[in-house]
Amino acid sequence: WEGFAHVALCCWNQAQKTHHHASIESFSGILNLMSVNLLHLLIGLFGHSDPTFRKACLVGAVSRPSDTKDWFYLNQKTIFNELIGKISADSNFLELLSSMEVAIRENTDPFQQMRWLQFLDWNRETLEGHDRNLPFTGAEIMFPLYAEHKDIAETTFMQVKSKFCSEVSFEDVIERYKMLLGKYKETRKQYMNGMMSLHCN
To answer: What is the pTM of this model?
Structure first.
């Protein structure tokens, strides 16, 4: 479910950019983008510590039911709502800021295992050559300014987190997630066919 939560945040953030056209190089744009990055970091930390985020996500088997009382559909939606509730209630801004600072200082990438998010279909925007749609993109460039204005940054983070948790829709994420699963299965099939071909030769 950690992966589904990351996709949900990406989809929600993309919808925000469709309706709000603030430049990503403006101060407000940097505050918003870094806040989204911190939310991705929070989801990643939950993925390591919270058993709900480590549960198997079966959303790929969901078809939008005409009967909203479909048990399986409601079960998956309930788990999603539980995850969003945890994100809303359990985040610690200063702890997240410190984690990102350590990662930048040590030149490590806490989002290394999230490269698959690049396969989501979206309109791309860049910041000094970095793809702003990918988590942690350009963080080392933006972080000093973000950390310098910690009070404003925390306020923006709480606002972004609140909007995400109140506005994100389970139904809106399903199709994007299924699309990613389809690409993964296709890539895995190609890999397995290639391995079998090498073995046969």
So the answer is: 0.78
